[in-house]
Each structure stands twice: as structure tokens, then as C-alpha cells.
Specification:
The protein has helices at about 1-10, 15-25, 35-45, 70-85, 110-115, 145, 155-160, 160-175, 175-180, and strands at about 35, 60-65, 90-95, 125-130, 135, 150, 185. By secondary structure, it is an alpha/beta fold. The protein has one domain: Beta Polymerase, domain 2 (2-Layer Sandwich). A five-stranded mixed β-sheet has the order 3-2-1-4-5. It has a two-stranded parallel sheet with strand order 6-7. Strand 2, helix 4 (about 70-85) and strand 3 (about 90-95) form a beta-alpha-beta unit. The longest helix has 14 residues, at about 70-85. The two termini are about 30 Å apart.
């Protein structure tokens, strides 16, 4: 549990990250999280001793609401966030519809959606609780992100089609260029 607490402390001590979380919280979405690179990049920046934040392509806000699965609603939410922080590249996705991307059975929650992200180091999410503290979901643990070892989640390791999705994704991301200490686990 120490690594989980370390990760939470990293987020809580980062004024910018807390501001991003507070902005997302204003949407009052059901079962919401900010995930993926937002969390992973923070850990890797700290692990590499970087004093400046590595730019991220987007801030992934996810939630779970099976009653509103229209993509247009997600775009509306992104616009609401842009009013609060216009400088942030927001991406909002309802996990109640995202299982279609990899032709999977429907997810049961936002955390279940995170569990189906391709890599364990990306399958991380944080959010604010009612009292303003940081909550963490890490369906596959946090050891890989702290060890800087990129490996597929079990589903992507087991399925030949998804293994190829993993391979292409890590090649495209080229994380080792930004964080040279990162090791890609080949499958």
C-alpha cells in the first residue's frame, strides 16, 4: 500500500494536478476519474527527477453513465471544462460506450473500463472524494508504473488481436524517447 500512498501524495502535492481534478469534479459526473497519461506521466517525471512537467497530449476524464451514451454529450462536457481551463486539452469519454472500441463486452463501471486499457502503466485513475482528498484506482496495481515497466494488461496479453494493438500502441507512443528509464515488455 506504500506505493499507492506515494502516488496519491505526488498528486496531492502538485497544485496543477489538483486544479485539474477540481475542474473535473465540477461536472459532477457519476463514477468519474482522470486517468492514463495524467497519472503515468507524473510518476515517470518524478522517477526521472524532472523538475518540469512533461507535456501530455490530453487530460482523459472518464465516467460511467449508461443513461447518456451520446458522443455529443461528451463534447459538451469538454467545452464546459474548456471554460474553466482553456489551456488544457480535455478528452471526456463515457465508459458505458467505450467497450465497442475493442469489441469487448460492456464495462460495468469506469474502473472496469480502466482495467481494460492496453497497458498496466496506463490503467490508473485518480479523482477527488467529497472531502477533497485524492482517491486512486489501479486495477492492475502501481508496481509497473513505479518500476517503469510497460506491459499489457492480462486481456491484451491473452488475445492475439489485442497483443498487436498493444505492440502498435507502445511503438507509436515512444515513451522511451521522453523517459529513457522506461522498459517496454515485448510479447
Amino acid at each position: 500500500m506504500t506505493l499507492e500512498k506515494d502516488l496519491i501524495r505526488m498528486v496531492e502535492s502538485d497544485e496543477w494536478m489538483m486544479g485539474v481534478l477540481k475542474a473535473a469534479q465540477t461536472l459532477q459526473l457519476p463514477d468519474w476519474w482522470i486517468c492514463a497519461g495524467f497519472v503515468r506521466s507524473k510518476v515517470w517525471d518524478v522517477q526521472h527527477g524532472l523538475s518540469e512537467r512533461t507535456p501530455i497530449n490530453d487530460v482523459d476524464v472518464i465516467y460511467y453513465d449508461p443513461t447518456k451514451v451520446e458522443k455529443n454529450y461528451e463534447k459538451h462536457l469538454e467545452m464546459e471544462l474548456k471554460v474553466i481551463h482553456p489551456d488544457i486539452p480535455w478528452s471526456v469519454k463515457n465508459q458505458a460506450r467505450m467497450h465497442h472500441i475493442n469489441s469487448l463486452p460492456p464495462y460495468e463501471s469506469a474502473s472496469d473500463g480502466i482495467a481494460h486499457f492496453p497497458e498496466t502503466v496506463t490503467a490508473l485513475g485518480v479523482r477527488l472524494t467529497g472531502d477533497g482528498s485524492v482517491d486512486l484506482t489501479a486495477p492492475h496495481g502501481v508496481e509497473d508504473v513505479f518500476n517503469m515497466e510497460v506491459r499489457p494488461v492480462p486481456l491484451f496479453r491473452a488475445d492475439p488481436k489485442l497483443r498487436e494493438v498493444y505492440r502498435q500502441r507502445v511503438k507509436k507512443k515512444n515513451w522511451q524517447h521522453v523517459w529513457p528509464g522506461v522498459e517496454i515488455v515485448e510479447i
